UniProtKB/TrEMBL annotation:
Keyword line: Coiled coil, Extracellular matrix, Secreted, Signal, Sulfation
Keyword Protein transport: no
Species of provenance: Vicugna pacos (Alpaca)
Family classification: Belongs to the UCMA family.
Name used for this protein in its record: Unique cartilage matrix-associated protein
Residue segments, region Disordered: 37-58
Pfam families: UCMA
Biased composition (Acidic residues): 45-55
Major place of residence: secreted
Signal peptide residues on this chain, from the entry's feature table: 1-18
Superkingdom per UniProt: Eukaryota
Subcellular location: Secreted, Extracellular space, Extracellular matrix
Amino acid sequence: MAWRQLVLTSCLSAAVLLSTENRQRLWADELRREHHEEQRNESENFAEEQNDEQEERSREAIKQWRQWHYDGLYPSYLYNCHHI
């Protein structure tokens, strides 16, 4: 009878230990997942800001080029520019 109790308690303690290890592993996986998600979001935000800045520089350069090369025969580019 005593050996049955010993086996039962050892099985229960092993189950608790495995349960604790699984919870720690799940917690570590969740932290890792959150960290990677934050890194990905930061990278995406940086890339989006870089693209926006590049588009703005291109738009300004095109606008300046059109103003410089305006020949006066047609209404100016700024006159035809539709502001949203």
